[in-house]
Design brief:
about 20% strand; about 325 residues; 7-stranded mixed beta sheet; 12 helices; about 35% helix; single chain; alpha/beta; 5-stranded mixed beta sheet
Length: about 325
């Protein structure tokens, strides 16, 4: 095992994928000589050369469109979108071409494109640098959507995404880029858990707290705090947002009977709403209380000095846990 930051684990995953398959090529703004804004691709230009680590113009639609052409020619392009809020110029290419070409051609055309997106808030960034656009892509049939939460998962899931014949939107929580964890760089990829499988990161019996990305750390803090009050909270890291591993989710809900779903993105029509609707369809007779959402507010992402009021925090998660456990709390009468 090797201790790596999440950012270094992603870089290691890219390096290994490029060594494994010479059809893997990287495209993005400043990913070559600079090594990317977050230095994820640092050193890859020197090792693999400018024909495989390609600095592109500042044109996200052109970057993804080029990746589509490369996929047609048998390559496995990995696109870096420099910040989450910059993906919107490429939205047409992603939803109209990348997501549909495999289906539209009855399988004759594959789109093994991985689109890496540094994602979500918590770093005090400027406008358009702290977006949470995952619901747009989850709603788009034909895309896999992955959100990692730790270095080990980042390393193996990125390699799985690149090896997949499906197009993958790969969300990387930028506020965790410097968080460290143990990574097994030598484990065979075939032995890794499937890319779409959810993970129980903490077992519990009284309520299930479901989340993904950087919110997994906050959820674990909430579970530890709830334990001090005698409550056992199970925490599930979804890992895959499309498809969602509802078998694992349902197994937990049938055990605990109570559910809180959390994410940074706005509440309206977010991933949490879909998860709760599906839980209700599958597990209604097991629910002891109404499932609750804890999310960002329905506003454009606020200025850096106000983001702490927007991001779901420990107190908001604990308030929701108290509510599903039928305990009095400060948010009575209002959704968290």
């Amino acid at each position: 095992m090797t201790e790596l930051t999440l950012g270094k684990a992603l870089g290691a995953g890219l390096r290994q994928a490029m060594r494994d398959d010479d059809k893997v090529v990287l495209l993005g703004e400043d990913i070559g000589k600079l090594g990317g804004v977050f230095r994820i691709t640092d050193g890859l230009l020197d090792e693999f050369g400018a024909k495989r680590v390609i600095d592109t113009p500042l044109a996200e639609s052109g970057i993804v469109g080029t990746a589509v052409g490369l996929a047609f020619r048998g390559y496995r392009p990995v696109v870096e979108i420099q910040f989450d809020g910059f993906v919107y110029p490429a939205f047409d290419q992603i939803v109209a071409q990348v997501a549909k070409l495999h289906y539209r051609t009855q399988g004759r055309v594959r789109m093994p494109i991985t689109i890496r997106i540094p994602w979500a808030g918590g770093i005090g960034a400027a406008e358009h640098h702290s977006e949470s656009p995952e619901a747009y892509f989850v709603h788009t049939a034909g895309l896999r959507v992955i959100a990692v939460s730790n270095p080990e998962d980042a390393y193996r899931s990125l390699r799985q995404a690149i090896a997949s014949d499906d197009p993958v939107i790969f969300f990387e929580p930028k506020r965790l880029y410097h968080h460290k964890g143990e990574v097994d760089l030598d484990a065979p990829l075939a032995d890794a858990p499937p890319m779409g499988l959810a993970r129980v990161v903490r077992e519990g019996t009284d309520a299930t707290l479901i989340t993904y990305g950087a919110m997994v750390s906050t959820a674990l803090q909430a579970a530890e705090a709830a334990e001090d009050d005698g409550n056992s909270i199970e925490v599930i890291d979804l890992r895959s947002l499309s498809p969602i591993d509802y078998d694992s989710v349902a197994a937990s809900v049938r055990k605990t009977g109570r559910v809180v779903v959390a994410h940074e993105a706005s509440r309206e029509a977010g991933v949490a709403a879909e998860v709760i609707a599906s839980i209700t369809e599958r597990c209604f007779e097991y629910l002891e209380s109404a499932p609750l959402r804890v999310t960002g507010h329905d506003i454009p992402y606020p200025p850096a000095k106000l983001e702490k009021y927007h991001l779901p925090d420990l107190d908001r998660l604990l308030d929701a846990v108290d509510r599903v456990l039928d305990r009095p709390n400060s948010l009575t009468g209002a959704e968290a």
